[in-house]
Specification:
By secondary structure, the protein is of the alpha/beta class. The protein folds into two domains: 2-128 and 191-294 and 333-363, Aminopeptidase (3-Layer(aba) Sandwich); 137-178 and 301-319, no CATH class. 42% of the residues lie in helices and 17% in strands. Helix 1 (10-23) runs parallel beside helix 2 (70-82) and helix 10 (297-313) crosses helix 11 (319-332). The two termini are 38 Å apart. The relative contact order is 0.16. The model has no long low-confidence stretch (mean pLDDT 95). The structure holds zinc ion (ZN). Zinc ion (ZN) binds next to strand 5.
Length: 364
């Protein structure tokens, strides 16, 4: 039953979402990406609002910020529309679905978008060219995307990282790797040199759908980090700040700050959570990432580097290319009923609490 919500292709995800909206009698606004998918299919971000369009509160879910992670995100969103037992909006809180904000990455099985940009590093001020510094990345960059991918390439990468860890410490090296970089368009975690299509589209969507709202919370759906099937809640805000304190009030110790104290996560200033604010006057905004664990960390890292190499230097249709793509996809979307069930149940819990708590807050 739950399995049926989770798609096998981008096109299936889109048609599942559109037919779920039709069944729920919802209008859909579609935003077309300038590029095409691997089967020359058109790519869209589709948006629908469940509940009262004039509700003062809105719970927003976004999928596919990291392209390939959108298969799980789409499954959650389609299930929310299809399952009568899923959490429902109330008269004062609506539920907005932003389905596949980075459809290109999803269709092509990449985390990045059509410009090799990691959308979760793209929400910075591009106008002045004052990008967040990341000097240590310069020492990593030569080892990340080799010209040839084989076991040797990964071993070379691992020994380079071990050496840099000894020199600078593990945490600074990990942060340099993940926080984003703005100088190497053909490497990982590249934040781009302008607002991407997805970035601008997200602003347009918010203007269109949140104009009436007083308060909104965005739940951005991700996979690939943390324990298998568990959805961890993450925010770049810190204890003592309004956003963190509200989320903590809702979710207790299940919410983690990516910037305070000891954390596995290297918060990026250009993430959708940290860097995006809807261009809507007077809107009280909070954003939280919901990150579902999949496979073991080291395995994911290896597959991620291989997939980056493949798209920049390899042949997608070679035997090696197909293998890399299969492994990479599995890292972000395990094709296992148990995993999908866990993801689904946790989503119900998290989204249900957001709807309920926001409704209660708006009444007082
Ligand atoms: Zn992600």
């Amino acid at each position: 039953m739950v399995d049926a919500y989770f798609p096998a292709t981008y096109s299936e995800a889109r048609s599942n979402f559109l037919s779920a909206c039709t069944a729920a009698e919802l209008a859909v606004e579609s935003y077309e990406n300038p590029e095409k998918g691997p089967d020359d299919e058109a790519l869209y971000c589709d948006v629908a609002l469940l509940g009262d369009p004039n509700a003062p509160g809105v719970v927003v879910t976004t999928s596919a910020t990291h392209g390939v992670e959108g298969y799980a995100g789409s499954g959650i969103q389609v299930g929310m529309l299809r399952d009568p037992a899923a959490p429902r909006p109330s008269p004062n809180v609506a539920l907005l679905f932003i389905h596949t904000i980075n459809p290109h990455g999803m269709a092509w099985l990449r985390r990045e978008n059509e410009d090799n940009v990691d959308l979760n590093r793209n929400f910075v001020d591009h106008a002045g060219g004052n990008y967040p510094e990341n000097d240590l990345f310069e020492e990593l960059v030569d080892y990340l995307v080799p010209s040839v991918w084989d076991d040797n390439a990964y071993e070379t990468y691992k020994s380079a990282i071990t050496e840099l860890n000894q020199k600078y410490g593990e945490v600074p090296v990990r942060k340099a790797m993940h926080k984003g970089q703005y100088r190497h368009p053909n490497s990982i975690h590249y934040g781009g040199d302008k607002a991407t299509w997805s970035n601008e589209t997200l602003s347009r969507i918010c203007v269109e759908f949140l104009d009436q709202a007083e308060r909104a919370v965005m739940i951005d759906l991700h996979t690939g980090l943390g324990p298998y099937g568990y959805g961890e809640l993450m925010t770049p805000s810190k204890p003592g700040e309004a956003v963190f304190d509200r989320l903590h009030d809702w979710y207790g110790d299940e919410v983690h700050s990516t910037t305070a104290g000891a954390t596995l996560y290297a918060g990026s200033k250009g993430s959708i959570l940290a860097g995006f604010r809807p261009p809507v006057d007077g809107l009280e905004w909070a954003a939280v990432g919901l990150e579902y664990g999949t496979r073991e960390r080291e395995h994911i890292r290896r597959c991620m580097l291989a997939n980056t190499w493949l798209h920049l230097h390899g042949d997608l249709d070679s035997e090696l290319g197909r293998q890399i793509r299969r492994d990479f996809w599995d890292c972000y979307y395990p094709d296992e009923s148990e995993w999908k069930q866990l993801v689904w149940e946790r989503s119900n819990e998290v989204i249900g609490i957001a709807l309920e708590r926001m409704a209660a807050e708006l009444k007082t």
